[in-house]
Amino acid sequence: MSAQTAIDIRNLSLTFQTGDGPVYALADANLTIAKGEFVSFIGPSGCGKTTLLRVIADLEQPTSGSISVNGLSPHQARLKRQYGYVFQAPALYPWRTVEANVMLPLEVFGLPKAERRERARKHLDMVRLSGFAKKFPWQLSGGMQQRVSIARALSFEPELLLMDEPFGALDEIVRDQLNEQLVKLWNETRKTVVFVTHSIPEAVFLSSRIVVMSPRPGRIIDVIDCDFGLDRTLDIRESPEFLKVAHRVREGLRAGHSYDE
Amino acid sequence: MSSVALQTPREAAAPHRVWDGLRRGALVPVLTLTAIILAVWYLACLPMNRDLPQLARVEGLANRYEAAWSLERPVLPAPHQIITELYASTIGTRLLRETADGLVLNPRNLLTHAWVTISATLAGFVIGVTLGIALAVAIVHVNALRRSLMPWIVASQSIPILAIAPIIIVALGSVGIVGLLPKAVISAYLSFFPVTIGMVKGLTSPDAMLLDLMRTYNASGTQTFVKLRWPAAMPLLFASLKVSISISLVGAIVGELPTGAQAGIGARLLSGSYYGQTVQIWSALVMAAILAALLVALITLAEKLTLKAMGARP
Asked: For B99-309, which CATH class?
């Protein structure tokens, strides 16, 4: 494992014990993610993509196998606050203003007030919400709320950003805008991003690598390299290269599904 | 110019503005309902009081009603009799009385009794709410307590307060605790319950995602409590405080009954029923209702201010 490795996953399995018997959420996953990569997990629901992200975040415990996050165990990485996590919903605290929501992790970490303010300002700027610092979440649209939650995850400047279908609940127009903004943000910050999605165009547009997963048991069936340059815009989605990658992802998903029938 | 453009046709029609305002507000329905209740009350005064000897020789419906509305010790007094008694026993009576010890509250004034009851109510409310919150915090944080404590808490409320109030008064009296505190204990016994139930619900209301977020920050249990659970519980806290303050008042009044307390709304009810002074009983009851309404209004005000500061939608 080199110093450039952000996440290293070896023979990872996770089985949930439920009343109806065991559920094999992840079976024998192997994956290495280098620092600065943008990796998407794509697959149908139940394929374990969110579970895998939660294992990286130490929100779930694997049954077997090994995993390291920035050279640490996920638990140590969580204790050292090595990653920012963006959930499916904005998960903003309704009684806090936009600014106070972004400052929440900084308060938990015990940063002085002046620095909290400064960092909140900087990261709200980054997601283009400077004018909304004093608003409450309900005064913002769904897309703006999710941008606040991204600013909150970035506010303590973690090396690693874990995003669990962050745009899944938004309409396509807003989702397209946010995809473009996220590429710019990634370009500016060069963070390692692990991004869970079930949208093929989103995965192909955003990622430097796409991990295709399939359900029952959740496993990795294909890993696709993908590079459309750092200054890409939404227009590339009509290019033959883009469609070729999208096609390969779709083929992978279809192959994974054939086990069901 | 823009302000003109923003006016809706309804607002522009000035002559109807006052009437529209009334119709949209609560004033008209409340006044209508009050008028209906008063009418039924006045009508009921004759049938309710018809067996009294004073009415035996009065002939004619109008005369009989007139007599029924001005009886000295009616079974059901007329509303104006209660209002007159309320006025006479509050504003019409001196609140302070000079004695050898200086100025003291006059026991003939109903406000003196109201104050005695209110002070026990507030003391009981503070004890009950503190206890209620403490129990809720313990139940939420210690899983074993949820199963072991909850049945006892529910059982405590199935005992009629009228049965347990004398026991508390006598037990505390035997160790020398008399006066306000035993009444406050009875109040607290009733008022902790809604707070515990409400706060257990409130403190566990944040969904898994919000709790996971705190976990990703490696937040301590205290931080999760202060920054997430406690603010999330505020709406339910205020809802339970409103129930809690009104049953605190009930508890204080019940606490004044069993020992024949010298002062308080309960004492007033007791002496009224002892001497057959129904008008006095009713005015004490109305005073209790006014106090309850005032206390709930205070909590509602605190609720509005708090939730507004917490960014609730207007």
From this structure: mainly alpha
